[in-house]
Write a structure and sequence with these properties.
This protein is α/β, with parallel strands linked by helices. About 35% of the residues lie in helices and about 20% in strands.
Length: about 775
């Protein structure tokens, strides 16, 4: 008999790992023990050599479904003379740390029990086991034990305790374990008063929703606002109350079959939809008339998610004429953080909801729903949050513990420890007191949870970003060095890290977004960078164009269109939609602004060029949220008849001039060409221009890897056109799969640049 001490790191707590080890050891005839520690799972195994090797192979290659193994190390040990294999209490190593599992959708086993009249958890809306349920949203600290979760105050009944203590049971050490006798309960409030509890609360909520009213529903990571998605009036009321004029609402159905009544069947998207993380998945719509038009105005896509909590499944039961599809949108006013605490929700949501469906399980960390699309059958993030946060991304280079603050839009931060980059859930739009408080609370929670004290701060180069001010304040209060990282360099580094590019490699970063502060003090956003993690060179860029009114141009795309027309030498004739969008008086003012250079910052932004084309074609003149005009332009292009024409850009040394594309688009409009076809020709032109620029840079600098990042690359039509073209010309093409291409992924790049700059600095 031999003995081995095995240490397993990764996502190995809260996923049924110890009972799985116990069962595997028993089947192999091993004796010893397994326990959680603050740095992973420790195993002491005694038995013959073949059995221990079989155990090691199982741990490394066949772990439980929700586990994510990062490393397995083993050292010889002395036999203890044990007669059985047991599970020991957790051990807290000082300074130890490990990843925390994200919140996971209710599993099929629990759903079967919930629908079984003979089961003691029949119709219990908080059923869970080691394979499903809340994790990150309820955890207070590590090791992941019940006392370190918000379930600590709920005292287990004898039946739950017996299952919790039984290694052969699916609920062994399932920290959120509960039942109707000892666990959380639902309650329905009207006008601040509880009018129903337990199952009656869910039944009343169903009735209220069926009447066309709005209900605030407390879920895993916060509240949703829900209404019947087929009720035009209900959707309009929700949109009005939420002050969300055009931004699409997410939809929830009980199963995939229901979803596919509204969108085309797609096995690969269905797999993403049904995954344990249950993100919102964007689908092209085939029968948008069945959904209230106010759900996604002007969009060719609908965002669906499946019910992911037992409460959602009970709410969406197909009985009594209940709607098959609900709007399920984040419970907040536009740009505020999602509500997650009961008292705060009562205060903030009272004007928005007609009733509130609550429960008494506290939420420690709010987490919005994740939003994804698919490219070449793979999941691509638009927002990485519930179901994925706070799983780490592997860093390609070492560095001291760093807190990267991200950007102001779609903020998410990054905290590093060794080769782990812990990417936060979606925080929101920085610049409000509520969002900045949410950021601070989340960052401090991550530091406690992963036992990291940052040694330095990384932040955006923009001096006026709220995230920059917060970063510098933190650096000052904690006496930490701060590293400013140029916005588009961070985007490129994020894409490179997302694809595990080593630190000695360079890439052509094609970074297209709405705005980023350039090293020359101007607004960048259409950039070709030659970059490593440590440095970058701006090799080419979209030609500067004035932005009349600065940031106001992003909300009024016709302003950018007018400036682009002027730069292209195209008169402001009233037959052009973008010209008609402005009053004659405004045209006179804008012309004076542009001529005098007053409040018209220069911009090389590709995002603003997409805005300009959307207005030029009459698709969007005023935007109520970031990215609206380009999304509508993409939707128009997708609905175009097949067309192979690509508008041309002039490439002159480092300068890329869109004037030929603008002139061609105006000519086509005047010839009566469908606006959708013009939108497609513009997309094709951008893809061809990207390929031509990359080929020129490869010829000059010998770099054959291209990293596509920035919010414009959320446009999957542009990806579908550009990526195959780049590959056909021999480029290794990198896109984002683990973090978003938009600013939600930029903190990862900031951390990598900070590490590389430190590594490259001369040491005394």
């Amino acid at each position: 008999m031999i003995a081995r001490r095995i240490h397993v790191s990764g996502v190995v707590q809260g996923v049924g790992f110890r009972p799985w080890v116990w069962q595997r050891a028993a089947s192999l005839g091993l004796v010893g023990w397994v326990r959680n520690s603050s740095s992973g799972v420790e195993i002491h195994a005694e038995g013959d050599h073949a059995a221990i090797e079989a155990m090691l192979a199982s741990v490394a290659h066949q772990p439980p479904p929700l586990a994510a193994i990062e490393s397995v190390t083993t050292v010889p040990a002395n036999p203890s003379g044990a007669s059985a294999f047991v599970i020991l209490d957790s051990l807290d190593h000082p300074g130890g740390s490990l990843p925390v599992a994200p919140d996971i959708a209710v599993c099929d086993d629990c759903l079967r029990e919930m629908h079984d009249p003979a089961d003691r958890r029949y119709r219990y809306p908080f059923i869970n086991c080691t394979n499903c349920g809340p994790r990150f949203s309820i955890v207070l600290g590590i090791p992941y034990d019940r006392a370190n979760t918000t379930m600590g105050p709920f005292r287990m009944c004898p039946e739950c305790r017996a299952q919790y203590d039984d290694p052969s049971n699916r609920r062994f050490h399932a920290q959120p374990i509960a039942c109707p006798g000892c666990g959380p309960q639902a309650a329905l409030e009207l006008n601040g008063r509880v009018v129903a509890r337990r199952e009656d609360a869910i039944a009343r909520a169903r009735s209220i929703l069926a009447e066309g009213l709005i209900v605030a529903i407390k879920g895993v990571g916060g509240f949703h606002l829900a209404c019947d998605a087929t009720d035009t009036d209900a959707v309009a009321r929700l949109r009005s109350r939420k002050r969300r004029e055009q931004r699409p609402f997410a939809l929830m159905c009980r199963d995939a079959a229901t979803v596919f009544r509204f969108v085309p069947e797609d096995p690969r998207r269905e797999a993403i939809l049904r995954s344990p993380e249950r993100p919102i998945v964007l689908f092209p719509a085939i029968d948008p008339g069945a959904i209230a038009p106010g759900v996604a105005p002007g969009r060719a896509e609908l965002g669906f998610m499946l019910a992911y909590t037992p409460l959602h499944h009970l709410l969406l039961e197909p009985a009594g004429g209940f709607p098959d599809v609900l709007v399920m949108t984040s419970a907040n006013l536009s740009d505020e953080p999602i509500a997650y605490e009961d008292d705060d929700a009562r205060r903030r949501l009272a004007p928005l909801a007609d009733a509130m469906l609550l429960h008494d399980r506290p939420i420690r960390m709010r987490t919005d729903d994740s939003v994804v699309t698919a490219f070449e059958g793979r999941r691509v993030f638009l927002r990485r949050s519930r179901g994925f946060a706070p799983l780490p991304v592997a860093l390609p280079l070492d560095g001291p513990p760093t807190l990267a603050f991200g950007a102001d839009m779609k903020n998410a931060f990054c905290l590093t420890r060794e080769r782990h980059a812990f990417i936060s859930h979606h925080i929101g739009e920085m610049g409000t007191v509520e969002t900045e408080r949410a950021f601070e609370d989340a960052a401090r929670h991550f530091e406690r949870l992963f036992r990291v004290h940052p040694h330095r701060i990384a932040h955006d180069l923009h001096p006026d970003y709220a995230s920059t001010r917060a970063a510098l304040a933190r650096a000052g209060s904690d006496h930490l060095p701060a590293v400013a990282v140029q916005h588009h360099h961070a985007h490129a580094a994020s894409c490179m890290a997302d694809n595990a590019i080593p630190p000695d490699r360079r890439a052509i970063g094609v970074i297209f977004d709405g705005t980023g502060y350039g090293t020359d003090g101007k607004v960048w956003g259409g950039e070709f960078l030659l970059c490593s993690y440590a440095s970058f060179e701006r090799a080419m860029q979209l030609r500067y164009s004035p932005l009349p009114g600065g940031d106001a141009a992003a909300r009024r795309p016709y302003r950018g269109a007018l400036a682009a027309l002027r730069a292209a030498g195209i008169p402001w004739d009233r037959d052009i939609a973008a010209v008609r969008a402005a009053t004659l008086q405004e045209l006179e003012i804008l012309e004076g602004q542009i001529n005098a250079g007053i409040n018209t910052p220069d911009s090389s932004s590709m995002g603003r060029l997409f805005d300009a084309f959307a207005s030029l074609l009459g698709i969007c003149h005023r935007a109520d949220h970031e990215g609206q005009a380009p999304c509508l332009l993409e939707s128009a292009a997708r609905s175009s008849p097949t067309d192979d024409t690509a508008y041309e850009f002039t490439i002159d040394d480092a300068d890329i001039d869109p004037s030929p594309a603008l002139r061609a688009a105006v000519r086509d409009l005047r010839r009566g060409v469908d606006a959708r076809t013009i939108a497609l020709r513009f997309h094709r032109g951008v893809a061809a221009m990207v390929t031509a620029c990359c080929r020129r840079l490869r010829d000059e600098h010998g770099i054959g890897t291209v990293a596509l990042s920035g919010g414009v690359w959320q446009n999957t039509l542009l990806m579908e056109l550009a990526v195959p073209m780049l590959r056909a010309h021999g480029f290794t093409t990198l896109i984002h799969y683990n973090v978003p291409a938009n600013d939600g992924g930029i903190a990862l790049g900031q951390a990598c640049v900070a590490h590389a700059v430190i590594a490259a600095a001369p040491h005394p």
